[in-house]
Amino acid sequence: DIGAPAAWDLTTGSRDVVVAVIDTGVRYTHRDLAAQMWVNPGETPGNGIDDDNNGVVDDIHGFDAITRSGDPMDGDDHGTHVSGTIGAAANDGNPHVGVAWNVQIMACRFLGALWGTTADGIDCIGYAMTNGARIMNNSWGGGPYEQALYDAIAATRDAGMLFVAAAGNDGTDNDYIPHYPSNYAIDNLISVAAIDRADQLADWGFGDGSGSNFGRTTVHLGAPGKEIYSSVSISDTAYDVFQGTSMAAPHVTGVAALVCSLYHGDSLTELRERLL
Ligand code: CA
User: Fold this and answer.
1) Which long-range CB contacts under 8 A does 170-175 form with residues at least 24 apart?
2) Catalytic annotation on 246?
């Protein structure tokens, strides 16, 4: 485990910390997430007007880059699972709790069930930056080096934001076979491998050698990524067990949210050093 109870003696997070989940969306009505969602202070729900002039109409809990709308509802479980690990509520009678109980989760959707476009991902990064997120969780990857994506992440570094990225699920060495976005060498980026309950690099158990990616110089942390129980999007009370570096990254993101709540004045460099 990650020793969370000792951290919770110090802080359980803060609503002042906004975490963008750049993913398949979030089931923002889920009983573990409804109270944890970012609420856009400049937007009036359902009036059909872009009240805060940020380019998106009625974006209360985030942004959907695929439909260009303010409704980032998750239809694929993935982003809802990630969000539950970061910040599921500590509500009564409920079996699940996130790493940071107090947090605001901003849903930024650019992934459909199987894939998304880099352009939509960049738009989500831009939305997170413009609308006040401090931390971004990026449980996704694939494709070649793209300068536009590099530049988008570099802009978030200049804005003091942390970019947490999943290292990939191929069982390969990212020092030799680059995986993006986790391999972009930008110093606000933390690449996260998955480990199992014995603190070993995760093997997915398919018997084909697939497991967490790794990399002496390109992967920075390991976090739990096997047998991870969290919220899913099929209903407001649904949960499931997933595995992957997608599940590891949000553990680091949750810890980053705790650190931000405890050390408000930290620079990006200080935040990163504390995490590492
Ligand atoms: Ca708006």
Assistant:
1) 170/210, 170/213, 171/203, 171/204, 171/209, 171/210, 171/211, 171/212, 171/213, 172/213, 173/213, 173/214, 173/215, 174/213, 174/214, 174/215, 174/218, 174/219, 175/215, 175/216, 175/217, 175/218
2) yes
pLDDT band for 10, please (50, 70, 90 cuts): very high
Q: Pick the catalytic residue: 14, 23, 182, 230?
A: 23
- Whether 93 shows a pLDDT value over 90: the answer reads no
Residue length, the chain?
276
Q: How far, in Å, is the centroid of ligand 1 from the Cα of 125?
A: 16
State in Å: Cα 58 to ligand 1 middle: 6
Provide the mean pLDDT of the chain.
Answer: 96
Q: Tell me the CA–centroid distance for residue 40 and ligand 1, in Å.
A: 8
pLDDT at 150: 98
Per residue in 51-80, pLDDT tens?
999 999 999 999 999 999 999 999 899 999
Q: How far is the CA of 68 from the centre of ligand 1 (A)?
A: 11
Query: What is the spatial distance between Cα 63 and Cα 68, in angstroms, rounded to a whole number?
Result: 7
- Indicate which residue of 14, 61, 71, 78 is catalytic: 78
Among candidate residues 139, 182, 212, 246, the one labeled active-site is: 246
Active site residue 78: yes
Is 80 exceeded by the pLDDT of residue 156? yes
- Contact call for residues 257 and 99 (beta carbons, < 8 A): yes
Predicted local distance difference test score (pLDDT) of residue 95: 73
